[in-house]
Design brief:
The complex is a heterodimer.
Chain A: E1 2-5, H1 9-32, H2 35-60, H3 68-86, H4 90-112, H5 117-136, H6 141-144, H7 169-196, H8 199-209, H9 211-216, H10 221-247, H11 259-272, H12 279-293, H13 297-300, H14 303-309, H15 317-331, H16 335-347, E2 348-351
Helix pairs in contact in A: 2-7, 2-10, 2-11, 2-12, 3-4, 3-5, 3-10, 3-11, 4-10, 7-10, 8-10, 11-12, 11-15, 11-16, 12-15
Chain B: E1 3-12, E2 15-25, E3 30-34, H1 41-48, E4 56-61, E5 64-65, H2 74-77, E6 79-81, H3 94-101, H4 110-115, H5 119-136, H6 152-164, E7 170-174, H7 182-199, E8 202-206, H8 210-216, E9 219-224, E10 227-232, H9 234-238, H10 241-248
Parallel strand pairs in B: 3-8, 3-9, 6-7, 7-8
Antiparallel strand pairs in B: 1-2, 1-4, 4-5, 9-10
Helix pairs in contact in B: 3-5, 3-6, 5-6, 7-8
Classes of the chains: A mainly alpha, B alpha/beta.
Chain lengths: ~350, ~250
């Protein structure tokens, strides 16, 4: 087993090689894959962002939310309405969606986060159930187009980005979605990382571990919970904006706008690793891969598979992941990320830097 | 007077947990709070750390009206505490536990954390201070070990380190010797006196180990059924008829 000192030459070498491999992979996918594959990655990025946002609230702060599909929907609808009805440039809708979702998130969080555990789950569940109903509401039809939703959200000219050059046609769109999603994902990841590796992050985990003790240490528990809920909501809205830009459609029945969306975000987060920064990335990739490889399993298969999944013409990915979740919770409560960490620890350990030579 | 408790009463439903408790603590003293189980000692702690609201009475700390301060501002005033049954952050390492203890000593908020402005610098400063505290309590070898699963005595010391990270003037120790062996208790007594002197603390100590309380306290307050039954120097309280009756029962 290797023992490597934090900050040593070897440690940096491993980091740089790891980062370079990741960068290569990220560049390889949109240049060498077929369009459909690129599109799958783009939608994975969207789900990863949503799961990351949920992770901040549930994974790190320990406050369950089943209402994140509503924030996803707020993002999606904000983008659709601003682009179609008000002629906004798509780029600016990210800012608008983030601000709106932050305000809504804080307003919901303020009363809701005073309750804990199962009750909090129930109240946020109500938010998720209520949201699509609100979208269909006759009196809001002027804004949301009611039950049929908003389609043909178009932005004709893709911006010309340096290096990428001019992107054209369906292929170009997929490549653009990929890079846009990746950009937002990286920003959201860095925001999460910044928060977690700071005084704020320590107070979030402290609230999760022991709320009373956190308050005695000087953490303003209510304020911290509400603000992280707001920030999480705005991150989730960014994912919603991406989804709308990718598909051009947003409806009250959309998979991620309804309660099912919240469940999927939750699944991705837990399978990947709750309370870890990179967990949602692994979870999201696994989910989208499963979703696509098992899509036809219900209708196309015969024999046992056809019998088991024959009742659905949809992808059974959620079902499979749900079952996998039970196994994962039993054997790796910290998700795939925790499993990965255990494996790397067999190969090498990073010894933390010596602290403060003052004696 | 650093802490001035006047006529404080706490009720839980029909049960009176504290009944007109009055006492004062001088700056720099170690004050022992003793009494049989259920006397209201921990309730007193929870009132001072603003977890419980008394329905009657006043508490002033260094001239501040303590009861008008919300729980999360207590640390800023310079009050830190440990918990009787441990209230650590089990998923965090020992070092991180102490770093949370230093929450009131930092200033990085959401915006600085996201933009990383000053966050790294503050992390480094707080980590160094926290590591020194771990060293003061002989825990530095376990700095990166998660708090969950360590022996009780170790975690009790971690609680003290975490409380000290808030740079308090007033430290409340809730049964720090509970569950320790004899030699550990002696060691702890020395530690408490040492940190009192090193960090210029005033200490309120709840403890059942009488020998330890009597050895290190400058002043002792004895309680029973939420009331104060005796107060004075350790030897005065030890020979007090009410205290003997409360502990041994029967007539004197």
């Amino acid at each position: 087993m290797l023992k490597i000192k934090e900050g040593s030459l070897q440690h940096w070498a491993i980091r740089i090689v790891g980062f370079a491999l990741l960068a290569l992979l990220v560049i390889y996918i949109p240049t060498q894959s077929e369009t459909a594959r690129i599109g799958q990655f783009a939608s994975a990025f969207t789900l990863i962002i949503a799961a990351m946002s949920l992770n901040m609230v549930l994974g790190f702060t320990g406050q369950i939310s089943l209402g994140h599909s509503a924030f996803f929907g707020i993002g999606g609808y904000t983008a659709a309405i601003l682009i179609r009805d008000h002629g906004w440039s798509p780029g600016y809708t990210f800012y608008a969606a983030a601000v709106i979702a932050f305000v809504v998130g804080c307003l919901i969080g303020l009363p809701v986060l005073r309750i804990r555990g199962a009750y909090l789950a129930l109240v946020t569940l109500a938010v998720a159930v209520l949201f699509p109903t609100l979208l269909r509401w006759k009196k809001l039809e002027w804004l949301t187009d009611g039950a049929k939703g908003i389609d043909s959200v178009k932005y004709d000219d893709l911006p010309v980005w340096p290096i990428l050059g001019e992107l054209k046609g369906r292929d170009g769109r997929a490549v653009f979605s990929y890079w846009l999603g990746l950009l937002v994902l990286v920003i959201v990841y860095l925001v999460c990382r910044g928060l977690i590796r700071s005084r704020v992050g320590r107070s979030l985990i402290a609230i999760r571990d022991n709320e009373t003790a956190a308050a005695v240490m000087g953490v303003n528990v209510t304020r911290t919970k509400v603000l992280i809920f707001g920030i999480s909501a705005s991150m989730c809205a960014l994912a919603g904006v991406l989804a709308t830009l990718n598909s051009g459609v947003v409806t009250p029945d959309g998979q991620f706008v309804t309660l099912l969306g919240s469940i999927i975000f939750l699944l991705i987060m837990v399978v990947g690793g709750a309370g870890t920064l990179s967990g949602p990335i692994i979870g999201g990739l696994v989910y989208v891969w499963l979703d696509n490889t098992t899509r036809g399993i219900g209708t196309d298969s015969s024999g046992v598979l056809g019998f088991v999944f024959g009742w659905t013409d949809q992808s059974p990915a959620t079902l499979i992941l749900g079952l996998a979740l039970i196994v994962i919770m039993l054997f790796a409560p910290t998700g795939l990320m925790g499993l990965l960490r255990k494996l790397t620890r067999r190969i090498m350990t990073i010894i933390p830097r010596d602290i403060s030579p003052t004696q | 007077m650093l802490l001035d408790v006047q006529d404080v009463s706490v009720r839980f439903g029909g049960i009176v947990a504290l009944d007109g408790l009055t006492f004062v603590i001088k700056e720099g003293d170690i004050c022992g709070l003793i009494g049989p189980n259920g006397a209201g000692k921990t309730t007193m702690f929870n009132v001072v750390s603003r977890i419980y609201d008394p329905f009657k009475g006043r508490i002033s700390f260094d001239g501040h009206d303590l009861l008008s301060v919300p729980a999360h501002r207590i640390a800023e005033l310079g009050i830190a505490r440990t918990f009787q049954n441990l209230a650590l952050f089990p998923t965090m390492s020992l070092l991180e536990n102490v770093m949370v203890g230093a929450h009131s000593q930092g200033s990085v908020g959401f915006v600085q954390a996201i933009t990383r402005i000053g966050a790294q610098k503050e992390n480094r400063r707080i980590r160094d201070v926290s590591y020194d505290l771990l060293r003061d309590l002989n825990l530095e070898k376990l700095a990166h070990h998660p708090a969950a699963g360590l022996p009780f005595g170790t975690l009790k010391r971690l609680e003290i380190a975490r409380a000290l990270a808030a740079a308090p003037r007033f430290l409340l120790l809730d049964e720090p010797a509970a569950g320790l062996t004899h030699s550990e208790v002696d060691e702890l007594a020395d530690t408490i006196v040492a940190i009192r002197d090193k960090f210029k603390l005033t200490v309120l100590l709840v403890e059942h180990h009488m020998s330890m309380v009597m050895k290190i306290s400058d002043q002792v307050v004895a309680m029973e059924f939420g009331r104060k039954i005796a107060e004075g120097t350790p030897s005065e309280v030890q020979s007090d008829a009410n205290v003997i009756r409360a502990y041994l029962g029967g007539e004197v």
